[in-house]
Design brief:
about 290 residues, alpha/beta, 13 helices, 9 strands, globular
Amino acid sequence: MNKTNEFQCKWDSAEEIPVSVIRSAGISFYEAHTDRHAMALVAEAKKKLDGDIICRIPFCVTVEAEAFGASVIIPDDETGPTLGDYKYTSLQQLAGISEIDLTGGRINEVLHCAEILKNNGNVVALNVEGPFTILGLLINSVEIFKGVYNYRQLLEEILHVLENSIVNYILAGVEKGVQIISYADPTGALEIVGPKLYKELSGQSSCNILKRVEKKLNGAVVHLCGITSLSLERSGLCTAKPVSVPHAQTYGESICQVLRTDKTIKLLGHNCMKSTPAVLKSPVVWQIQLT
């Protein structure tokens, strides 16, 4: 089975909140991104509208970077949160950066939203960004690549802080009842950073995170974006194994079946979480095993 031909990346399009969902929930776009209760209403309404069985939160990729101090603009319209100016102009300014505080701000609202959705009987997927994607929202990517050659030790120290924060965020989500961690690091993909840098830094950083959380998932799974899992496999950092599922199931139903029936599977990949409402063309999900 050729997984690379079957996977179609959809991460380059932002998560959309239809106007009809906002109107039916009786809240504003701004509230959908900032308030736990409004966020839960939108997640449930989107699930129903999309014909999905999984609620995905949050609705943007800026939550973690904002928790690290990034300037994020949240307009009260359907365009969604966007990055303002970069908080940092040089890698040296990131020296001594602190880990994320999960007890306040929008990231705390996301975690409490997960708990609300779980208590309402939903299967909850928490979207989590990887280190290079978060870093790329804090500082211009040109400065990151300069740092690879001029400030390698400093860059590794910064990545270590980001890894710690991401691990804590994932485990906090699991504690709140999240059953699927939807992990992606598109800015650090193999095709963007190149084979050497991917294996030494970007891919290795994702592996560090995954190895630290996979034994603490308490029945949850980490779903790797297809771009991320294929980058890891092509770099020899993981292997992929097909797992058969019944015919005529959606991808979301197939993931949920794995959650119910096989507690030995900790990592899935080679597909897109935005495809969960779609019926699988081939009745297979892909188990990812780190090497």
